[in-house]
Amino acid sequence: MALRPERHFGALLTLVVALAFSGCAELERQGQLFSVPPPPQPEKPAPARQENRASVQHKELLAQFGGEYQAPAAERYLDAILVKLAQASDTPGQAAYKVTILNTPVVNAFALPSGNLYVTRGLLALAGDGSEAAAVMAHEIAHVTLRHSALRAEKEREAALISQAAGVIQSRQKGEEERSKQRLSVASFSRQQELDADEAGVKVTARAGYDPYGAARFLTALGRSSELRAALYGKRKESMGFDIMSTHPSTPERVSRAIAFARQIGAPGIGQRDRNGYLAAINGVAFGDDPMEGYVRDRKFTHPRMRFSFVAPEGFLLENSSEAVFGVRQADNEALRLDMVRNPPFDSLEAYVGSGWVDGLLPSSVKKLEVNGLSAVTAVARAGEWNFRLAVIQSGDYVYRLIFAVRSLTDEADKRFIESIMSFRRITPEEAREAHGLKISVISAGPGDTPDSLSAQMTTPNRPLEYFKLLNGLDENEALAPGERYKIVTE
Fold it and tell me: Model pTM?
């Protein structure tokens, strides 16, 4: 959870429900991987000493994605793949690419014309071997060599002009129809870009000596990851399917197309996978949240840098994001959100709660209380079919806002919410220093080992067996091979 400037949420309570029940502010949406970077913005006149555009973009990306993650072995491994991809590309004379690993568990990758290529440590955890990593990077480089970012920006400008003209010369209904057509045109154009980059990436990967089926395997893992998140956080599967307005094809479509591209090159079994080399390179890479930005262990959330912790009610699954901590209790249609703002300019917490940032507040429910030595106020609000128990807790320079959403605020449910609010506390400097994150550990399977026995060694917030199978690309009933190396998550 990162610090955010003060905002006034006219419909904050509705937002709690919308975000929590749509996958806990999921950042790793299906089909979002392999994103075309935003089109370059026109440069403003600047002093002669101003940094060049590539340097500015690099710093902006680091700031947006948690900074650079230092993993020398993984960087060397990926850079060596890039050398092979460059030699096999259609433009071997282009500037050499160099990888930067981003410190975020979100699965993503992108390349810039400057020669900077970015992969997240979340992607490194999901990829299963060198050919999968090569496929991702070849795909991103293809976006650059095919000029997709510039072409997409041109298409969007054209669509905007047509929509604007349609709104002037046609009726409102006809104008909206034309705008819908143009949005669809841009979406189709972008989906085709993804498929074109997939095809070009598979070809270059194969020419570089890697297994051309690596792209299909990685895309399959991406789809499985989305399905697991949907199962965990209550996001309905139909909401994750193909959207005709989406700028990316659905993952199943991309998998089938990637397999077809690979089959044009040869039958399965050709090319190098280098699973052992890849696993050795990522052994020890951090997994999940950066602990200094807050982390989840079971129902407990701890933020060492801000020095606080709280425990969610029984049955809640928590997820940390850059904006807030979200939680769901799927079976009972309950959700929560925790965020923080700098001390608002009000004389009291009661005045802040009643200042208008909460819709449906019941004024008679506003009450002062003390939470482990911290001043706090709690209240109840109603919006539509949802009821809310909320609390604001003052600690140092910040006010922490904890909101629970439930369809029916029974005495039993309210008691659980109050107990969770009362669990909020400051942690000691010693507790903050003891914070440590999770990491990828690579181990060998012994005779008799099974997915159950190895996943039992995993430290994950939930469902270790499912995560073990996902991280290792194992089918439902696939057995382990003695002596084979596998990824697990440990502290």
Answer: 0.74
